[in-house]
## 1
Amino acid sequence: EDKVVQSPLSLVVHEGDTVTLNCSYEVTNFRSLLWYKQEKKAPTFLFMLTSSGIEKKSGRLSSILDKKELFSILNITATQTGDSAVYLCAVEGLASKLTFGTGTRLQVTL
Amino acid sequence: DAGVIQSPRHEVTEMGQEVTLRCKPISGHDYLFWYRQTMMRGLELLIYFNNNVPIDDSGMPEDRFSAKMPNASFSTLKIQPSEPRDSAVYFCASSPRGGIHEAFFGQGTRLTVV
């Protein structure tokens, strides 16, 4: 059974801090790892990672994958209150099946 | 395109009643997914379809749950009879061929079974 574990479960930081969110996985026939941001409603796509060691970057967010150690990290620099959300990690396995972690709840305070 | 459309947005029902959740995927998307989200278990895949055919329903909790996709533009998830432990947010998502990273989620249906 495919499995995704995220840590920490929740995090409170001050605006301007840098945070690192972790995702480890076990999956049969790994195809990709995806990060989503979920605010009040539906998850929105952030990154898809397929190759080890290649950083994906979008503004203050970046992510990297280690396929040997089976984990990924999501970094957010200079956090803002608008970054407060649940961040979900998912892995795509056989036949495009996505398995999600339970998420990391990030709260950014002033 | 209006995106993935789910209805109803909220549903409150009594234990034992039948509940039907509806989803209209984005036109042209070949994959449709039903997920359930709870605080305890996070986002869980229940079932997904490719070209209207169910591919993997191993996530469906038990026989009380059933899903259909009679055509490319409509899917239902039915719970009969409903139980309080079914209370959750149910998401539908659709994705174009080969583009799982392009899975767009609907706004979800918040189900409360009392």
## 2
Amino acid sequence: DIQMTQSPSTLSASVGDRVTITCRASQSVYTWLAWYQQKPGKAPKLLMYKASTLESGVPSRFSGSGSGTDFTLTISSLQSDDFATYYCQQYSSGWTFGQGTKVEI
Amino acid sequence: EVQLVETGGGLIHPGGSLRLSCAVSEFTVSSNYMAWVRQAPGKGLEWVSIIYSGGSTYYADSVKGRFTISRDNSRDIMYLQMNSLRAEDAAVYYCARALFNGACCRFDYWGQGTLVTVSS
């Protein structure tokens, strides 16, 4: 099974900061990697797929990059609505989520 | 507007059974891949099961042999039959549409979740 590891687990930031979250796969997932945002008590929301393709309706301050085993999600200028937990998910072989990165003030 | 609505959660004793339902609107379950994802309290997301449009089904090792995914095409409802429930199955269960595009799958639409509590 492919394991997904995110870092950091928690990230403290301020409005306007540039934020980068890293996701590493235990083996290559090519670019079959998605990112989700989840707020407390809510369902996850798809942000990005195929590593760098922005889901429709998602603000352009979100961007993704990477291939193989190393991926990043970047928020160019953090907004108050972006404080949430972020998960990566591989769909190259089965379906595995990272453990999550909580972005907090 | 695309909607997924889960029902069927509740409190169940260890060893008991429960069936979750996921009713969808604005798309059909028969022509889509559909999945269940769960989240234990305070924990991360865990994929549970998926059913392909062609009917193939797959399960996480943690639920294989105990859970069964199915669908009613005429009613556009997906189900998760959960048997021999354990304390570690306690979670919010989300249904999601799974989108295939070169590979399967990202999860683009999610329900609001239904809580399953397993306790004696």
## 3
Amino acid sequence: DADVTQTPRNRITKTGKRIMLECSQTKGHDRMYWYRQDPGLGLRLIYYSFDVKDINKGEISDGYSVSRQAQAKFSLSLESAIPNQTALYFCATSDLRDEQETQYFGPGTRLLVL
Amino acid sequence: AQKVTQAQTEISVVEKEDVTLDCVYETRDTTYYLFWYKQPPSGELVFLIRRNSFDEQNEISGRYSWNFQKSTSSFNFTITASQVVDSAVYFCALSASYSGAGSYQLTFGKGTKLSVIP
């Protein structure tokens, strides 16, 4: 089984709808991240969490919110989806005890906002 | 602030050719980490390698090798005898302290799309 899972893997929604992307991990890592990938732009950080009580904004947090329900779960919400939020979304984890903080990524969620 | 530049947007090579993917980084931190990730057509991101700023020793893993040069702020990736399965987007990334509190943020380059033609 994959260490970092994301659901759904693909989603089509309409402008104005609320949508939640979920991430679960079995790696035992305390740090979790949400990124979005747009063609030609690489990955950009949306939010990150270093433990259950810690939530931090990343480079492009506007229009998004997150919830860290447990050490193993980190959800990303789009309260009112808009077409320019169409992208590939990745969840990642890293281990506080890993000095180099290598991040390990989930398989991604392809989101299309019509 | 940190920045990663992958100047090559797309590269095409014929199978069995060697290919080098360039990565240039910018950071003011003296302690930082460099990474390469592979994104095959299926879309997932696969971790390939990490290096820290204190270790300039080059690394070889099978057909893959990495050349880290602090003098030129570069961390280039070479694939020897390329294969069709190497076709993917490759991302270089930099992790450096952004708050001074020991927290590190990963900054990605925009990626290089490698196509290996049979």
## 4
Amino acid sequence: TQLLEQSPQFLSIQEGENLTVYCNSSSVFSSLQWYRQEPGEGPVLLVTVVTGGEVKKLKRLTFQFGDARKDSSLHITAAQPGDTGLYLCAGVGGGTSYGKLTFGQGTILTVHP
Amino acid sequence: EAGVVQSPRYKIIEKKQPVAFWCNPISGHNTLYWYRQNLGQGPELLIRYENEEAVDDSQLPKDRFSAERLKGVDSTLKIQPAELGDSAVYLCASSSLWTPGETQYFGPGTRLLVL
């Protein structure tokens, strides 16, 4: 069974601060996705990282895939209240779990004005 | 273009009662997924359809859960009888193709509370 551990589970910060969310696994994934979910809504895909060591930027969000394709991080610069939400990482499986998404438990981010 | 539509949005039932959830995917999307999201957790896949065929139902508790997608478009997920532990958000998602990393578009979910 492939598992993804996210940390921290909860993050409460002030507007303008920087933060990093981590997603770790003992398993190798073919790619990894990050989602954002707001209350009462489904997750929305932010990015997919495919290559070990890959870095992608989406405005103030920077996503990195570990060299061994087992871990990833999400860094937000100068957080804003609109960034508040649940951030989920999801590993895209290979082998017998081909294409299957395995989600982490999520990080609840609250950005205070 | 309309997104994934789910109904009802909320459902409260007593244990041992049946319940059904409905999902209409994005038009033209052949792949449909049902996920369950427990409080404080990420979604877990229950079943994946390619058109009308259930190609991965390994995580579906078949003793009480059933699903169908008869015409390869909309889908229904049923629980009978419901148990207290079934309280969760049931999410439906769709994608145009089933390829690794293909974007899955999620509906808003049905929040189920079993009393």
